[in-house]
């Protein structure tokens, strides 16, 4: 479990495919394997390769196996609840608590700072239907935006204040695009939360079981050589039964990060709100409440 386990939970990592170059008169890598396979000696080759590798410590072998299985269980689940508490640039704290399913639908709460707090419902795009997002702002968020609007220029104040009044107690339908539905199309996918963490479990070590909130959990820690990294942390999986992923705590870029996983397989209440409780504004700015 190298640094990608933590960074993968916070950001999506692009993987680059590297091409292999071989000299025109040099046998490509793997040619000896092909020859051995054709001669019926493939199993001997595999045994020789294994014998040449130093044995892994028991805690490492167990840690790699448990993290691999935990990731597989998360990938396979029809739904899960993921609560994230992350500090990003300039010390901004973002808290998201979402139930999501494999289709990309989700429902829950969002707190991303001033004017960005509320209940979110997101329905992923289907064939013939674009994605739909709805945000019911908290009274605190609406009051914060009102204060900003009152300090803005007269045109902005005139445009925003009536919208804030209309939005109170209602779900605001989000516009399409990067200032509306796009972030949730990524955030609400289980695989997106994993990021690249599934690509590298090497070196993960299992520690003795601990008890947290009444549950026995096994801490999985990164390789010893990552102690000085700004991206590190501990993953906790169930000690009894299948090793479901339960929490992840650490740092990303030197800033604190915490995730918890629960409600595996439970229903996700991502349903279109009653039209009487929905309001939609023209996307005439970067945000319908741009102040």
What this model shows, in words?
By secondary structure, this protein is of the alpha+beta class. The protein is built from 8 helices and 13 strands. The protein has helices spanning 4-10, 31-38, 42-52, 58-76, 139-150, 154-167, 182-187, 190-194, and strands at residues 79-87, 93-101, 106-111, 117-123, 132-137, 171-173, 205-206, 210-212, 215-221, 232-238, 245-252, 255-262, 278-279. Strands 1, 2, 3, 4, 5, 6, 7, 8, 9, 10, 11, 12 and 13 form a 13-stranded mixed sheet that branches. The two termini are 43 Å apart.
Summarize the structure.
The chain has 291 residues and is an alpha+beta fold. Helix content is 28%, strand content 26%.
Spell out the key features of this protein.
disordered N terminus, 291 residues, alpha+beta, 13 strands, 13-stranded mixed β-sheet, single chain, 8 helices
